[in-house]
């Protein structure tokens, strides 16, 4: 019986060895697939790294260009601000000058009006007195019966 035991043990060893060989071969195939996947991932990671580096370089270049444009436009903006200040100051001065001129003109007009009233007042009083005298004389002459010298002709 020992022979049978040795034969069964040898058979079991052969079956177990065959099973282990099959498992190891399957494991080897899985490891090769895993290596291929890892190589693909490494390649994709390398490509992503290259793309990321290029993107960072372009971004850095763009930022530098923007900084340069900002630096160039800063002096323009400052100039525009200075021009705005000058324009505001000039406008205020023109407002002050026009206000002063308007005030001066109004004073001159008022003064001229008062002078004209002072000059013309005696003339109008004399004219009024003359017209009143003439009107009175006309009434008096018509009442006394004298004829108008222009009617005689």
Automatic annotation (TrEMBL):
<feature type="transmembrane region" description="Helical">
    <location>
        <begin position="6"/>
        <end position="27"/>
    </location>
</feature>
<keyword id="KW-0472">Membrane</keyword>
<dbReference type="InterPro" id="IPR009293">
    <property type="entry name" value="UPF0478"/>
</dbReference>
<keyword id="KW-1133">Transmembrane helix</keyword>
<dbReference type="Pfam" id="PF06103">
    <property type="entry name" value="DUF948"/>
</dbReference>
<keyword id="KW-0812">Transmembrane</keyword>
<protein>
    <submittedName>
        <fullName>DUF948 domain-containing protein</fullName>
    </submittedName>
</protein>
């Amino acid at each position: 019986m020992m022979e049978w035991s040795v034969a069964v043990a040898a058979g079991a060893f052969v079956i177990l060895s065959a099973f282990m060989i099959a498992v190891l071969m399957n494991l080897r195939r899985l490891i090769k697939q895993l290596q291929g996947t890892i190589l693909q991932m490494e390649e994709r990671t390398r490509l992503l790294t290259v793309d990321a580096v290029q993107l960072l370089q372009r971004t850095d270049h763009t930022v530098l260009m923007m900084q340069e444009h900002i630096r160039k436009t800063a002096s323009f903006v400052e100039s525009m601000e200075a021009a705005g200040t000058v324009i505001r100051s000039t406008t205020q001065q023109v407002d002050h000058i026009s206000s002063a001129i308007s005030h001066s003109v109004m004073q001159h007009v008022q003064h001229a009006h008062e002078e004209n009233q002072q000059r013309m007042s005696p003339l109008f009083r004399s004219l009024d007195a003359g017209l009143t005298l003439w009107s009175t004389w006309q009434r008096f002459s018509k009442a006394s019966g004298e004829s108008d010298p222009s009617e005689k002709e």
